[in-house]
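Design request, tokens follow.
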């Protein structure tokens, strides 16, 4: 049983302090104006009312960051009053936490320990709508189950920041501390991917002018090939000529019969020669 419990404790996720600060910074810068103005309003009204409104207005600041991280909702200045509907619950929570941590601080170590295990009381009350005692118990278990020493280091850093940031500087450090605590609350609950710091919008690059294609050059017709020039005979080469008949050569003629030659005639039988009678 002991071995299983130890293994289970070692296998639990530990708080990533660096991731908590990163996401807290992103949440703080995403709604920096509403958070700063809301912190100023909460501080002034808390002083005027002798701390009576400190609890409900602090819960309103937590609600700004919870809405940004959980829902992606942009915070507004009026959100500082968003938890006034649970005025008595947050007033009582503020009184109990301040009194108990102050009494434990007489031993110095005790105040730090109680501030560590109850670091998530307000986030649980805002996010899960828990009562004070249920939120104190849930905060204790979430701190112990997700790395007590990491949470203790976180509290020590906050105490150091609070010791340095006095007076008006607290208007900057108070909302930043609330943002980091809320971010750590969501990180320990398994929300690793939180909001990113909003990047400045990049103006669209001007569209490149459309360059019309130049018209194609007209096809140049190929000039007809020059007629083949027959080679002229060499200047000293006499042209070959057909030999004309010699001027004194008489044309060949068919010989006509001689004019004085009497034509050959068939001799007619003699008139006084009697015909030969048949026997």
């Amino acid at each position: 049983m002991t071995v299983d419990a130890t293994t289970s404790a070692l296998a639990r996720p530990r708080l990533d302090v660096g991731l908590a600060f990163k996401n807290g910074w992103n949440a703080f810068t995403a709604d920096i104006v509403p958070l700063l103005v809301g912190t100023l309003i909460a501080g002034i009204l808390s002083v005027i009312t002798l701390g009576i409104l400190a609890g409900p207005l602090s819960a309103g600041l937590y609600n700004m960051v919870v809405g940004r991280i959980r829902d992606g909702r942009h915070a507004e200045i009026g959100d500082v009053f968003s938890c006034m509907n649970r005025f008595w619950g947050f007033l009582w929570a503020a009184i109990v936490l301040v009194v108990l941590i102050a009494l434990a601080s007489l031993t110095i170590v005790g105040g730090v320990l109680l501030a560590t295990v109850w670091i998530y009381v307000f986030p649980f009350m805002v996010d899960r709508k828990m009562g004070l005692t249920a939120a104190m118990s849930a905060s204790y278990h979430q701190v112990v189950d997700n790395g007590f020493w990491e949470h203790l280091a976180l509290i020590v850093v906050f105490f150091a920041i609070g010791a340095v940031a006095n007076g008006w500087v607290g208007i900057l450090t108070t909302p930043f501390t609330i943002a980091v605590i809320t971010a750590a609350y969501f990180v320990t609950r398994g929300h690793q991917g939180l909001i990113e710091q909003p990047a400045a919008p990049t103006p669209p690059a001007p569209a490149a002018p459309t360059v019309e294609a130049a018209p194609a050059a007209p096809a140049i017709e190929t000039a007809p090939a020059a007629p083949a020039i027959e080679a002229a005979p060499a200047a000293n080469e006499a042209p070959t000529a057909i030999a004309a008949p010699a001027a004194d050569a008489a044309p060949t003629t068919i010989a006509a019969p001689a004019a004085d030659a009497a034509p050959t005639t068939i001799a007619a039988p003699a008139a006084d020669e009697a015909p030969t009678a048949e026997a």
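Comment from the thread starter after seeing the answer: thanks! Residues 1-11, 231-279 have pLDDT under 50 and may be disordered.
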